């Protein structure tokens, strides 16, 4: 005997499968239409325009700190004093990876020894979180301990207790604004507590990955508290590494990454980085300045992104609301910025939903990717990334997701 609900759900799923769609909601990539916004940047500079404001020839070697005028443009958005902000290569993931590799191989300011000589190095991983952060830890043999995310950021009571007593805990991953994947914005209180909490490790670091600092989906340009200033005030100036990039502002493959920190941390980082490069691509830095111009230019450019992607997020919410409002155990985030929606499904069904979707030609981020080692103990979190497909496809893909969720719920009875 099968329930009528199950029969209907199976019929709907078979119909979906027969359509043979081929859609992808896996990665937070800008769409071609978004990339088109910044493509004119590629034609800037040229034979008569390659000098920085101070006369530097950007075509040549050097300038490890990055172009001053680009740093000045981004300093307020990343909440870092301009002299403590580095503009680097094209990927902030690379900056984070390298920073941890440097900490492994050379003692951080305040460290008793380099991390490679510690018996155990642990990072706190708020979950759900960003899979590539977790991969960096896995690669370097840094263990991860999960901490639950709340709407205000990581559960600070848990964080404070862990870091206060355990000197092997050397860091925490944070995406403080429009977090990947829940869209959460850290409250001022969370930021203040992170900045000031006592830690057993003298070389504890916060990787403050502010990847979505200007990526608003509404008129409300959300601001968060200034971690670096608060940590400095609390006597923990060396605690934050502030990270950002223009990957989702200009071109995802040809943007600029930033690193901000205390002067001591920046000196440490530049000294070590000088062993791996003679300097970043300053022509790309200059191109960014010419294209974005100033703070207003940057805001204006981000409004154009918003016009393209906000309707896609609205479509996700519209389909989920129509299909699942009031369904027990099915919830989703309603982000006001960033690139992701978190869909929470009843315990034990996420893997099955992703499998059903895949068989129907709809690629979703693997269940578990939002947790270290790819293991979501509840098997209930699915990350949706609606920016890349065109709007009609986002709606179609979400209708497909709904069919898969219905079937997984019906199968479970
Ligand atoms: N941090 C977060 C939180 C991200 O979501 C992403 C992109 N998905 C990155 C970093 C990668 O940034 P980049 O392109 O600068 O390496």
What does it look like?
With 413 residues, the protein is of the alpha/beta class. It has 2 domains: 4-28 and 298-412, Aspartate Aminotransferase, domain 1 (Alpha-Beta Complex); 48-292, Aspartate Aminotransferase, domain 2. The chain is built from 13 helices and 13 strands. The structure holds 4'-deoxy-4'-aminopyridoxal-5'-phosphate (PMP). The site of 4'-deoxy-4'-aminopyridoxal-5'-phosphate has 13 residues, from helix 4. GO terms for molecular function: DNA binding; L-aspartate:2-oxoglutarate aminotransferase activity. This is DNA-binding transcriptional MocR family regulator. Keywords: DNA-binding.
Name a few traits of the molecule:
Aspartate Aminotransferase, domain 1; binds 4'-deoxy-4'-aminopyridoxal-5'-phosphate; 2 domains; DNA-binding transcriptional MocR family regulator; 13 strands; alpha/beta; 413 residues; globular; three-stranded antiparallel beta sheet; 13 helices; eight-stranded mixed beta sheet; 13% strand; AspAT_Ic; Aspartate Aminotransferase, domain 2; PyrdxlP-dep_Trfase_major
